[in-house]
Structures
1.
Amino acid sequence: LHGGSRQKATAVGGINGRILGLWEKRAGRQPQQLPTFPASQSRSLSREGNEEKDQQGRRGLSFKCLRSLRYKICEDNWRRPQGPGLEPGSQEPEEKKIALELLETEQAYVNRLHLLDQVFYTELMKEAKTGKTVPEEVVKMIFSNISSIYQFHSEFFLPELRKRMEDWNRNPRIGDVIQKLAPFLKMYGEYVKNFDKAVELITAWSEKSPPFQELIADIQKRKVCANLTLQHHMLEPVQRIPRYELLLKDYVRKLPPQSPDRGDAEKALEMIFMVAKHSNAAIAEMERLQNLWVVYQRLGLEDDIVDPSNELIKEGPIQKISTRNNSTSEKYLFLFNNMLLYCVPKVIQVGAEFQVHLRMDVEGMKVRELKDTEFPHTFLVSGKQRTLELQARAPPAFQDAIDRKEKRSETFKAAVHGLETDTPALKTEELGRRAPQWVRDNLVTMCMRCKEPFNAITRRRHHCRACGYVVCARCSDYKAELQYDGNRPNRVCLECFIFLTGHTVLEDREGKYKGILEKGAAEISSRSLLCSSLQLLDKNGKGGTRGWFVIPQDDPLVLYIYAAPQDVRALTSIPLLGYQVRDVPQSESRHLFQLAQSRQVFTFMADTEELKQRWMKAMARSAAGITDPEEEEEEDAGPCDEAE
């Protein structure tokens, strides 16, 4: 990851069990005689260079370019024109034509490997040993195990293939040759993993060392390079395995049903497929490690976060909802397979881009969707140490990432419980062990325990650190040790103090009458026929009180009016039985309707026309005495009339 010595790279890869084989020793190698490219191949390479040069900048090939070039192989546009004696319509069997094409492309490929190993690598290493260009270790990291690949193809694969084609008339088969040598192709995994790092090293040292850049440029000017850069030649081994797979597929497809080579060829194709899969896995792993390292750099490379075995599932901006002032602030989340990082963008981005404010373990994490009309697409992330109320840009942004991960990992699925829609209150057994959701200040106008109204001077808002309720100072004048906060004493309400400590407080609350209005807004809203914010206008229809209006399921003939959605006591209630519901046509910005009975008239204003129609329908059913939600109305008009 750090791009240090080859031994360090091997050690990092070994953590994930991905490195296949050892780095080869290069000392003492003597250059071999340089083979020449056929004229037809030189023209082909030149043609490829003109097409690819437009995509190739001075900084070399990126991983995206690598992947796009690899997948272009699947289009079969890389297949060479058939040489003399193999023109369409010749009498040679189709399978032999493909076998000869394999031999021809293998010879050209060995020439390309010779160029990489015996020219580029040998000359660069010779200069590196003088100490005037780059360190020897850098050259070794650039070319990885190209020497082993070249040796295998030039001394084993190509001679075996050539020998078989010379004896084709007596033994028309190549499946057994490929089957015997295919396991050695797994050595490509190391080369493919190293490719992107090699390109980066070429770019970086070309800028640092002019002699290094000049030597590469000098070699690239030679006729044998066919006007292609070192990076393009290095891409050839990455493309070779997929080409074997396509050629062999075509070969098997053209074999006669009774061919003696069918069994070996199909087995060889299966082995090549596994090698290609191995190569693709190496590319995916290298890309994952590269992306992971970029994320760690953005986070400042903190020791307790950097771990190559982590998997980044999702990242993105998020809005944090404040429980104090009902505002939002921009934050940033990184969701890994084992942790969630809650970050803040740094104002001065020197080094790290983000500052990690909170790390939450995925184990024990819960995610719950919130129904909030003021802040749509909100959800609650509850960990053992902290609970966050967040707003996403779209509903499934966070949960979808978790769901995708759950499908691939039973461990992750067991740790994250998914979307929950139950009450925000903690379960009794979790009280003090898990950070609670704090009720937002603007959602209550009175203490959620004693029901006394808040004011800015004598009765201010406080939060119970155990249950998250908004309570007054008198109701939260207690301390209890909370397990999620390291057993440190925290401010809690009376009910939580009694539960957590087992102590009793001498306060006579026995026999206190619970009035008809003492129904919690949150409690009955979760079991309501309809609930939302409305505005109750004054007699002049110009002003009034905005509040939270609820028709409970267990009391469907009464409309309860609260100052805020989380209040534990209603301000007032209106018995709906016998009222008429009337529409009040107004402008598009005012959606008005009325409840009228004798001389008593209540005028309401909804936020939208759709919400207004829902309230009129619900109130009309209650006014008609209909208590069963499934019961059909006998008349559409009912008690709803147009206001005169």
2.
Amino acid sequence: ISFCTFMPKLAENYTEDTWLKLRDAVGAIQNSTSIKYNLEELYQAVENLCSYKVSPTLYKQLRQVCEDHVQAQIHQFFLNIELTESLDNLSFLKRMNRCWQDHCRQTIMIRSIFLFLDRTYVLQNSLLPSIWDTGLELFRTHIVSDSAVQKRTVDGILEQIELERSGETIDRSLLRSLLGMLSDLQVYKDSFEERFLTETNRLYAAEGQRLMQERDVPEYLHHVARRLEEENDRIMSYLDQSTQKPLVSCVEKQLLGEHMTAILQKGLSILLDGNRVTELTLLYLLFSKVKGGLLTLLQFWRDYIKSFGGEIVCSPEKDKDMVQDLLDFKDKMDNVAQSCFTRNEGFINAMKEAFETFINKRPNKPAELIAKYVDSKLRAGNKEATEEELERILDKIMIIFRFIHECGAAFTSKLEGMFKDMELSKDIMIQFKQYIQNQSEPSNIELTVNILTMGYWPSYIPMEVHLPPEMVKLQEVFKLFYLGKHSGRKLQWQPTLGHAVLKGRGKKELQVSLFQTLVLLMFNEGEEFSIEEIRTATGIEEGELKRTLQSLACGKARVLNKNPRGKDVEDGDRFNFNNDFKHKLFRIKINQIQMKETVEEQVSTTERVFQDRQYQIDAAVVRIMKMRKTLSHNLLVSELYNQLKFPVKPGDLKKRIESLIDRDYMERDKETPNQYHYVA
């Protein structure tokens, strides 16, 4: 280094040998050769020079020497275009990285020698860059800012990333070093990131279009998740952290944002139909990352529920299973909302809205079938489920029931009364069991009684049957117990609702109706009976008896043999106990054959529903007339349709208006009969 120009100005005790040492040391560092002198001695020499007020000259000369060296490097390695063009991109990147690493190592070594200069003179002059920053500035100015070098470097990096995205293994440490170089030199964003994001956008736009055509939705969702994971891994491995947000946004936009509607149209119903919990969870997670994603998903989710539920409700051929299908569907959607959609309140509210919409598409029928379903479950009691299971089922039914628009206060009151009866019956039976234990002659029959309040429950046709003496005696014990606590009440036994568990030979138990019980107990007293003998002994009505015998002798579990054989029971048939009866279960349930509902019964049920609703109609008419005072018939009907939440026929509205006129709540205009006036 040429320090000779200012050497005569130094104090006499410094000789030319000191400057030769410094020159040799810096030259050795730049040429990657060993330093002949002690580093501590060199450091002390710089400190002494600074103390003699030559720091400005020392700093200026050091910068010049470093710049000369960098210029020599650019001439030697990069401006020789013929040489660099002969290298492939990967070899060029490695050469570039080696040049950068050498430069960093040299700058650090030079700074360690001139550290005193860096921490005193440079630090005190805020406009001067540090020795390290000077090294970066020189490398950026003379090497990286060269257009050919910069383009070749960025091209090579982008090529390596493209190879990795296509599945090949690359040298990540090389990219980490080179991208770190661009970041340190403060050219990362302008020289690399803009081109990188443009290429990424182009790649994923094409990939999204292609894969949406080639793959099904579950496979596509997993691919998107994998791509996002890969890009995040690149950020952690070699990209600058500042790239994370625009990079992830680019992938999400091209693979998700541009295809949201197509993904949901193509695959949401498939995922929901198949209860694909994993993919539904992934779908929600991915759509939550995209602007407007969850809102779009919510709309499709709501539409799916309306469509699927509408098919359940509006298919008369499936009425038999409607309520159970609704319960299963609600359970399934609840599970999706909780497990896959993170209990998002918006999705839960959308589900409720959708259920409320589709269940009211078909007037009256869902309410009618729900009432019958509740009745059948409560009749069966613990024959089909434990008390806890039954209670859960009834709770779920009530949730479905509440979606129906105003079935009428009386109807709702009846249903709630049915639930209340079942709760009170549990308490009564606890007290009755304690009462039985205190009796002098406890029964070997365990009796369970449900107390049903008349008016809440459907009307049952009274039927007198001949019970065994043990049952009659136990009935009287319960009657004495119950009326002792509730004087003034009347108990009416309903044999059509009774059921029992019978212990048979071979350690088997039969779960049967009371009618089936009475028939089977006869075979403890004899081997064979005619249908007439069974009717006389049990007192069961003829039609009910034939269905009972059919269930015992013609069903899957044939406890009785019928002679002659056949599917139907006829007068003159004879029955004997099936001694060859076998079954794999310990407790065998023999279902009673149900009588089909007649058209008259369906009409009667519909009429009862309307009777419950008529009070709602009356109240709405009076409320409207009280506010408007005078109104034409057509306007009144229009207002009623706006206010009533359940479907109603114009003829039914007319009947209610006439009834209110008869009861002096309103009157017709004397000159215009089609106009009404409110009567205060």
3.
Amino acid sequence: MLGGATGAGAYALGMISDASSSVAFTALAVVVSAAAAIVVGFPLVFIAVPSIAGFYLARFFTKKSLPSYFAFVSLSSMMVIWFVMHNFWDLNIWLAGMSLKTFCKLIVADVVLAMAVPGLALLPSKLHFMTEVALISHALLLCYIENRFFNYSSIYYYGLEDDIMYPSYMVILTTFVGLALVRRLSVDNRIGPKAVWILTCLYSSKLAVLFITSKSVVWVSAILLLAVSPPLLLYKDKSRTASKMKAWQGYAHASVVALAVWFCRETIFEALQWWNGRPPSDGLLLGFCIILTGLACVPIVALHFSHVLSAKRCLVLVVATGVLFVLMQPPIPLSWTYRSDLIKAARQSADDISIYGFMASKPTWPSWLIILAILLTLAAVTSIIPIKYIVELRAFYSIVMGIALGIYISAEFFLQATVLHALIVVTMVGTCVFVVFTHFPSASSTKLLPWIFALLVALFPVTYLLEGQVRIKSILGDNGFGDFEEEDRKLTTLLAVEGARTSLLGLYAAIFMLIALEIKFELASLMREKAVERGGIRHSHSSSQGSSTSFPPRMRFMQQRRASTVPTFSIKRMAAEGAWMPAVGNVATIMCFAICLILNVNLTGGSNQAIFFLAPILLLLNQDSDFVAGFGDKQRYFPVTVAISGYLILSSLYSIWQDVWHGNAGWGLEVGGPDWFFAVKNLALLILTFPSHIVFNRFVWSYTKQTDSTPLLTLPLNLPSIIITDVIQVKVLGLLGIIYSLAQYIISRQQYISGLKYI
């Protein structure tokens, strides 16, 4: 309505120019106004009022007189007030949760503002603030009326609350008409950027009623949009390449965003309650508030502080904090929950108990420790905590991390085993110190880290054995052997001991895996630095000679052979920088692999497929002359293939032995049964798979060129093992032998072709 009046006024002023048409238009306006007043029942005594209003409207279009338009607005307002009071004022009806009189007042005020805006828009630029005030007031009234209609849907006071009397398409229509009007007035320079910002937020906030069923969602959305949108709408100077905001402005906007999110906590609570079907926990509510605050600050950082690295890091840390609160849902003290009356009412509901019953409570305070540990890790990774440059801070950081992780693991997984708590905390502190100082070494760390690793290795069997011995002794010390309940309690305790030991194995496997990965990463970085240093020296030496001739193919091949030996020399020169690292990494890798094999036996009964996932752990082995002579980067795949072959062979022997000794006590000669013939047959078929595995493992160790017929000759030996055997492990070995033979043949062929190219 406002946009049509503004645009049509400019168009009519251009058309009505000559005197004859002006008189005709004025007469027509007067007649039409009087007729319309008579139709709606306006008293004939006051019929001059609408006629005069029509006259002033025509005068506005013909003479371009703003006082005439405001006279028309005044007279029209009087007629609207009479119409409303004459027809609706005495009705005792509650509409949209309020009396009809109140609703009539709002409608009259909104109509008067709508009629006044076209005239205010034509005022001089110094008075454009009046247009802005009128538009904002009109938008506020419209938001209030539509919110009441949409969320307070009862026609009468005790009417049906679920019947929506205001359709959704009307909300969408008024929203887009309002945004189009704001856009048009902004392009014509009728309103300023601040008014555009406020009006855009108000009109856009009305769309929230379509998605969230909350009676305050419009105002909550408006506040959030007003807090989030300034970086997008108020700072549009694209000619400046630097930050368009100052630092204090960024802090101020971020604080406003946080306050706006805090103000909207009830709506967030209602949305989460609708999503979960039950009231969310305090940790979940706080986590979503933090995430919303971080996401709302993204425009500030992305558009105005994209060159400030610390701002990006802080934003990542804030969002990560919110995600951790959502995932962990830690308990929050009552003084931190800032609960409102709505949240208190939801907490005091007894529906959860009546529906879900009483649930066993579990201590949730350890979640604060894991949140602290993860946030400290992120802060260190993003260099918010400068542990890279301060040794004391590095030591304090690693100790705090270890204590937090140790207490969390003890309380979360070993709550009943109090004797293990101190040992687990010491283990985690040692692990954190080892990893941190291996990544950021200090002057004395190379001397202390091997001893810390030795302490971790020694704590493993002590912790494992101590967990079982203490509880078992407590069971054997009891005297109630005849009591049935006592026997059940002992069985439960034994099962708990077995579960705790399995958890300990998993914990130490993860610790040794982390240590092996860290050492492998550091050794690879050191080799890379040495290779770059040697390459730089070689490049400077070749450039000083001024050699401009190209290498022949044979010389180029020799250069590549020399480049492949750089890691070997770098390992020998590494003694001054930490010769213990390869040995410690190898021990950690082997222990991790061995513990994983034990877990495979305990959890899956010795699954054959698991070895294909566990054997790649051995890729973390490092070149160490004290470990295996001649083992280097060239032989890195040899432990993997040997482990797979060896595991399957041992598993086959165990399966054959188990079938013979536990399958048939009668020692019959039935073919295919668990007897001596069964054992001899399957052992012979198992031996037939050995040549392919031996040849391939030798090839993986040396990569020496063999005759093409060797892998092809061993390939048919695996076919009887696949077809005849009764043991699944032998079949897997046969299939693996065929794959090994084909792979060796293809690799050897490729090496031969590559050698011919160099020659």
4.
Amino acid sequence: MEQTDPLSISQLKLSSDAPGSPLPQANMAGELSKSHMHSLSPKDGLPPKVEGSKETWEESFDVENDYSIEGNGHSDSTNFDADLSEYKKKATIIIEEYFSTNDVVSVVNELKELGMAEYRYYFVKKLVSMAMDRNDKEKEMAAFLLSTLYADVIDPPEVYRGFNKLVSSADDLSVDIPDAVDVLAVFVARAIVDDILPPAFLKKQMNLLPEDSKGVDVLKKAEKSYLAAPLHAEIVEKRWGGADNWTAEDVKGRINDLLKEYVMSGDKKEAFRCIKALKVPFFHHEIVKRALIMAMERQKAQVKLLDLLKEAVEVGLINTTQVTKGFSRIIDSVEDLSLDIPEARGVLQSFISRAASEGWLCASSLKSISAGEKLLENSSANVFKDKAKSIVREYFLSGDTSEVVHCLETEPSASSSQLRAIFVKYLITLAMDRKKREKEMACVLVCSLGFPAKDVRNAFFMLIESADDTALDNPVVVEDLAMFLARAVVDEVLAPRDLEELLSQTPEPGSNVGGKVIQTAKTLLEARLSGERILRCWGGGGIETKSPGCTASEVKEKIQILLEEYVSGGDLKEACRCVKELGMPFFHHEVVKKSVVRIIEEKEKKERVWKLLKVCFDSGLVTIYQMTKGFKRVGECIEDLSLDVPDAAEKFSSCVERAKLEGFLDESFASEETNGKKENGSALSALT
């Protein structure tokens, strides 16, 4: 049992709420919660010694396991034990006070003063294990604190290691906490949703633990009961009443309010008081970012807002690291800002020059604003953006891909490679904030548009580049964006080599959200039956019919059956209905491929097949992109066809010429270019 000096508590800084604090603080400084009081002994205010209690096993477990950990900086085991014991005592006090005061800033300051960063995994473990035996309020406080401390105070490997120890000790935790498996499963799920623990943690830990251990039960419950559930992020975040505590959205809203009030009143003292009352110094970069954007939007307020930032830095209210981070986030999103504020680049450059000359920004630590392609014409980009919004929103309501294709074909500015990339980026960004239906529809549309791979790759590059910022609002951005990226490869919109190119363009790919996105996408594509799984990730076949998704094999079988029934019965209307009810317009190239193969093999009633292709094309059921893709795929397997049909190449050339005459194949299509060629590394090559 740890021996704690109760006098050391007085050395910690308790923080009470300032009146009018913009954040909901628990105003309990100097008063411990009832659950905490019940756990204290009347003698000295310390947790009582109980043989076999979790305090005892935690100590023995940690000391026993920590000897095997390398890189702790201690060669002397005696010094190691002394340092760890000291850290444990102080960590326990910090956590107890946090549960009493709800003062995040105090925790941040105390941990930094305490140092010994190599032991912070223990803080993670201790925080969660103490919260598990308390009320929902403390559980939510613990989850919020971990998300707050992640990366800024506690390094990601230490968070990972802390959860590793928690899961490993699940059997011991269950002795004192009857519902330990369920509670710890929620903590693990919450950590994954908050993006402080990678999803791969589940599988890796399962492989390391004995099959009959409680730790395995925890991981399985986290995966199947929480993370696999529909709307799992909202469910997990609200499990302990998260909406009633601090959220990033709450803080952002309050930052906006304080900046607006400052612009109206010009009262710096009041603005500084509000910033202090936020008690989120780790989030001050958001103040910098929003102040700069507001300054761009309101020319008359520029001087006021820049003076506010300058003085906030001079008095030490906002540190230079947060200032740099705020400017960096603006630079990352300057292309999007330029759509609403045409002069954003120039204004931002002037802000940087002024801040650097006044000494409150280190400009050399920022990347160049001119990185990447500049918008061609800001005015036309603004017009295109408004139209793109209208087109995408209408598409999410109607599901009519042909109408979107038509709108973009008649839009002159859509011929710009950069604006096409922006359209795809906007489409996916909007879909990520919506349900599975819209995500599936976005994938279908990207596939149906027929944009050059370069434009789609540039769109994903912009999405990945801004993923760190998106993660502040969307905790599952890594999983969502990785799935969109993998789906683009499966749909053959991108080639696997495009992932490598994106990875090579990502700075420090292993350490930022963008790098994680690409690595996760590659992992998804390398999995067994990846094509089918990715096609079904958001319901696959459910767009037209709202039915569960089908596997690629099932869809192929359905296509084969509908062709045979159509050829034998001749009911063209029924055949078109069946094609539509497949609900997979991005897979219509398979209808074209099987139809052309049937014609080449000279099966009966070839004219009926030609008629079906023409009607499907004329009605917009099969787009020219899908038609072209179908013919290309026939050309790619022409060598195999030649084994059964010796003159397959000649017949295919005749089919191409007829398709051009019928008008559903572009004149530029050349059959010889596709003969025998197969796209390198296609994720669907096994399905063709």
